[in-house]
Amino acid sequence: MKVVGLLSGGKDSCYNLIHCVQQGHELVALATLAPPGSKDELDSYMYQTVGHDAVHLVAEAMQLPLYRRIIKGTAINQRAEYGSRAASSSSPSPEQQDETEDLYHLLMDVKAHHPDIEAVSVGAILSNYQRVRVEHVALRPDVNLVPLTFLWQRSQSELYAEMLEARLVSILIKVAGIGLDERDLGKTLGQMQGKLERLSAMYGAHVCGEGGEYETLTIDSPLFKQRIDVGETETVVHSDSGFGSVSYLRLKNAKLVEKQEELKREEGWARTPPLLDAVGRRTLSAVRSAVGSSSKTDGLSESVDSLQLDDAGIQFPAPSIRRKGRYLVLSNITGISPTTTTPEDQLRTAFTTIRHLLSTTSPHLTLEHITHINLFLRTQTHFTRINAVYLKLFGVSPPTRACVALPSLPPGCDVVISAVAFDDSASAVPFDRRALHVQARSFWAPANIGPYSQSLVQAEKCWIAGQIALVPADSTLEREAGVQTALSVQHARRIWRATVNDMGGRGVEKGWVEGGVCWVDGVARVEGARRAWLCQSGGVDDDGDEGENWLGQTNADGNTVPPMLFVVLPKDSLPRSAAVEWQITAHTGRIPPPITTDATSTDDDDDDDNEPGSDTSDVRIHRVSTTLASFELVHSITTSASASSTFGILTLRRLASPAEADADAKDAFTASIRSCSEQSYATQLFRPVSTRDGEAMALLKELLASTSEPLLDQTQMVPCSSVHTLADDSTAQQAELALVWHGI
């Protein structure tokens, strides 16, 4: 693609340009924003302005045209979100006096001169504030540029070292962090590396300056045809204190000079990080070890891969809305009507139904209150058409989404939706809704262009969008099935980690992964997915650190893994004909404001330690089982009473030779069923159409018959090929039925 580079003159914007070129893109122009008048620096939330008087030299060194605009706005909107959560058609105009709008006018100016540009280079590493605003501008219909952020979420120490290896030469032109002073101004990255690493170890300072500790000017790069000689400088002390001064360099007569021939011959290039990190490579080894192995897949039916699904035996419940505390769940929503003849019409009608059902609640809710959606299609061939309608339904911070095809939907039904909404009104302590919606290409995880967020946290519960193995740098699907399995779960891990790290640098070890559903496109994928999930227990993280375990408290002992249901679908049922899709939920580990005050609440109101925002450590995974009739019933539950969050998987498996369970096991199992009934707000029933599950369904109805609510009538029906769960010995066992539930 043809690219315009957003240029501050610093190391990050210049290094990202190197990656753009290495990825095959063509740089055609550079663009920058400068402070007004004679100001050396503007206290901007968005832009680096110190050193602006030398930015033109950076452009000249690369022999590219530079487009400059004066910053006229200020940071009016300082929220994590920029724009409205309402659909685009009803969104108010952006704040015209916000400094973000200066970027819009700058890019429109560039497009007027270069109408063929297709992408914009951005040097963001950790700043969601900056990334969100650049994406909001770049993806507007009249701008229509793909953001390229190849430094996003990279390890700062690793990135810093790579810049030096690439022979990027940048000097410090501003210092504003503890341990830094005017004596560090003018020093190169190479000269400062040791000191910055020490400050990071001592005070938690950001090695790459992501906390505003320092800013840089790039004076040489592999993309430069000439280098910059800074010449005479003046040190300006902006403020001074015992903790750290704020000072910067004023460049008086910087100029371009020719590079030395030996330096030209030694030019380096940016190191492209591997597709799979350390944990990902370990996962891939585990997946590949499943090839040719049958020891862990005994009893799995191979016939479901190509079976013709028979929908005659499965009846879908009527559309429903169910409230539990502040959660509202809509299930089995279809768009079937005499006038809906296309999949697009069915989607529109389904969301009309959703709007109506939400409006009947007190208080009235809207689509903006939805946190997660499961979108079920009859066939993935409808995906593009349906997505074109779907993307117009939400504004910024849209709900997360998982989308699979279910060929055995009812006759004439092309779309079924289940949605989780949350009532965040009238709370003494406000609920903080935080969405991670990255729409830029990077080396981190796939971009989500438009319709859904990678993750969304509401009431401290984190919903992670379904992840398939798209290559982050170009959004193509990885071809090898084994790599797909490892890469897609790596995406989920990285998204979860980035989500909690954005909460003041919080670590994943303070929260936990609850569990989830792994969709696979044939029974042959189950064993590889099983090994991949077990492999997430313990081990090193992205940076080679032994201390962080992304599963968090549910894997504190390094052995237990959260519950996971493996759901087999026919071939081509996943987006892009992917082999596997991971759909995971997690919890930040912080206590939310009260979610419910009714008798079913599991909160301990007498515990003074359960203050909203405080940490909790009472999460546990427990597994209970019993035998009834000719079935083994297994209930795996992740729960935290203080966090008001529970996730469970209930399976029924037919036994060849039934064994009578003892009374204690039956009592424990009965108690677990009661907790499902009393605490659940969202339930999904996975029914394999390849089996005759009449006895299993009758038993499940009997188990739930004593509950206070008609649970199955409000449960999302999911017809599939087969379901598999982890047995006591961690092998995969096929089940007749599975009920997955989320509860308070």
TrEMBL record:
Documented EC number(s): 6.3.1.14
Superkingdom of origin organism: Eukaryota
Pfam families: Diphthami_syn_2 (PF01902), Ribonuc_L-PSP (PF01042)
GO biological process: protein histidyl modification to diphthamide
Metabolic or biological pathway: Protein modification; peptidyl-diphthamide biosynthesis
SUPFAM superfamilies: Adenine nucleotide alpha hydrolases-like, YjgF-like
Listed Acidic residues bias regions: 601-612
Catalytic activities: diphthine-[translation elongation factor 2] + NH4(+) + ATP = diphthamide-[translation elongation factor 2] + AMP + diphosphate + H(+)
Region (Disordered): 585-619
Record-level Gene Ontology MF annotations: ATP binding; diphthine-ammonia ligase activity
Keywords on record: ATP-binding, Ligase, Nucleotide-binding
Enzymatic class: ligase
Diphthamide synthase domain boundaries: 1-74, 95-248
InterPro entries registered for this protein in UniProt: Diphthami_syn_dom, DPH6/MJ0570, Rossmann-like_a/b/a_fold, RutC-like_sf, YjgF/YER057c/UK114
Stored PANTHER family: DIPHTHINE--AMMONIA LIGASE, DOMAIN OF UNKNOWN FUNCTION 71 DUF71 -CONTAINING PROTEIN
Protein name: Diphthine--ammonia ligase
